[in-house]
Design goal:
DNA polymerase, domain 1, single chain, hpI Integrase, Chain A, mainly alpha
Length: 465
């Protein structure tokens, strides 16, 4: 039976609130604050007791009430809980801030804000960042979960596109919205993944920042220029050269390289380890190092104190300008008709060089830490001259009747022997095919059967009677 009472210190105060004590559907004693009017508090107590009895009998669905309670909460409270959940999962603070700001921006657009209100004019000015953050918070405050519908989110993404954002950026916003929707469903704040129908854009229709790769000679010029270069963004030239070599040898990302400490390197089994807090997939990564690079890194690390940042790189936006200084010194353009060459292009360089060295796609996928071969293929970017050279290595398919006679070739001094084509699977990192025995014919003509041999069929064995 529910009871109504006042606390001892408030009994003489007529304006003090009454309290309700009752048992919920599980038999647990609950205390709830009522109001200064005793009759209204008694009415509320009877309602609570009646609802508890209906829940106990199964007439009222407790989950439906929980969904209604979550809907009554401001959306900002759910975003705060999601932020704490991301931090508990070990997501870096930078990624959490980016994720929450994108989600707030989408909600603000749904609530009628203009993109210029909720986005800073420049991230370099703290005043602009603070102003945009305040505007987003004010727009998100009255919103509820039910305001996030598939139609409204799709319109917000279209507004981002109309303001000049690339389709790839719009897809990043979509991924954030979908992630929040799944989290709400998994934590039973909503009955379903209510934004699973938000569609993505085809990024191939709007390429803004296609990357390219360099030739081996250009890459060496870049590293030599950095080795001899001055201090840029507080990073000495030899350190930048080590960073570029490490990025190409391992495919590590900019932020992953910046997180490395002296303890990350293992000289006995040459490798470098990046902690899970800094990798994109949230898993720790241990990558092998060439012995030559491992020795050079070990000599540099020996001069540092334990636990310090081995490569104190500037912010990512300034890291691009750091690389451009060395590109200019090496005489390499930052942008050509083939695309851009920024720091992340060094990761593409790793995949491309491994592919040219004959490394199997599955191994390249493991080195790049990709989830699929399709994604690895997007990072393998052969140059146009390499593609043209590959076309010249294809065998001749000209009909035999149209080929010049061997005698005619001999008369002109042309070597009549067939051209040797190296097998792609047998080409090593040096670009040469492995040695073969002298009695083994490595010519294309001997490897491929003749026309008469192709037409000849084996005589079937006589059937037993």
């Amino acid at each position: 039976m529910a009871s109504v009472f006042k606390k001892a210190r408030d009994r003489a105060n007529k304006l003090a609130s009454w309290y309700i004590a009752y048992q919920d559907e599980h038999g647990r004693r609950r205390t709830l604050k009522g109001c200064p009017d005793k009759a209204a508090t008694e009415q509320l107590a009877r309602k609570l007791e009646s609802e508890a009895d209906l829940r106990r009998r199964g007439v009222i669905d407790a989950r439906a009430e929980a969904y209604a309670a979550h809907e009554a909460k401001p959306l900002a409270e759910h975003l705060d809980a999601w932020e704490e959940s991301l931090k508990a999962e070990g997501v870096t603070a930078k990624h959490v801030d980016l994720t929450i700001s994108r989600m707030q921006r989408i909600v603000a657009l749904i609530c009628g804000a203009r993109l210029s209100e909720v986005s800073p004019v420049t991230r370099n000015r703290r005043a602009d960042v603070a102003r945009a953050h305040k505007a987003r918070s004010e727009r998100v405050a009255p919103a509820r979960l039910s305001d996030l519908t598939t139609e409204q989110v799709q319109k917000a993404l279209a507004a981002l596109k109309a303001e000049g954002h690339s389709l790839q950026t719009c897809n990043h916003y979509r991924a954030v919205v979908r992630s929040f929707s799944r989290w709400c469903w998994k934590t039973r704040r909503t009955r379903e993944d209510f934004l699973c129908g938000v569609k993505s854009y085809n990024v191939k229709e709007d390429r803004r920042h296609d990357r390219r790769t360099l030739s081996l000679e250009e890459l060496r010029r870049l590293i030599d220029a950095a080795q001899r270069g001055p201090v840029v963004r507080r990073v000495p030239g030899p350190v930048r050269a080590l960073v570029y070599r490490l990025a190409v040898a391992t495919g590590l990302r900019y932020s992953e390289i910046g997180s490395i400490t002296p303890e990350s390197f293992n000289r006995d089994a040459p490798s470098v380890t990046v902690s899970a807090a800094y990798t994109k997939n949230g898993d720790p990564a241990t990558l092998p190092l060439p012995r030559e690079l491992a020795d050079d890194v070990a000599a540099y690390v020996a001069t540092l104190a334990p636990g310090v940042q081995v490569f104190p790189l500037p912010r990512y936006t300034r890291g691009a300008s750091m690389l451009r200084v060395d590109l200019d010194a090496a005489g390499i353009p930052y942008e050509t008709a083939s695309g851009f060459f920024d720091f992340h292009a060094l990761r593409c360089e790793m995949a491309t060089l491994a592919d040219q060295a004959g490394v199997t796609p599955r191994v390249v996928q493991r080195l790049m830490r990709h989830s699929s071969l399709e994604l690895t293929g997007r990072y393998t970017k052969p140059r146009a001259v390499d593609i043209e050279a590959a076309a010249s290595l294809l065998p001749s398919l000209k009909p035999e009747g149209d080929r010049p006679e061997v005698g005619a070739l001999a008369a002109t001094g042309t070597d009549p022997r067939p051209v040797r084509y190296p097998c792609a699977a047998g080409v090593g990192a040096s670009g040469r095919a492995p040695e073969r025995n002298s009695d083994e014919d490595n010519t294309l003509t001997s490897a491929a059967p003749t026309a008469s041999h192709r037409l000849r069929r084996p005589t079937p064995a006589p059937r037993g009677r």
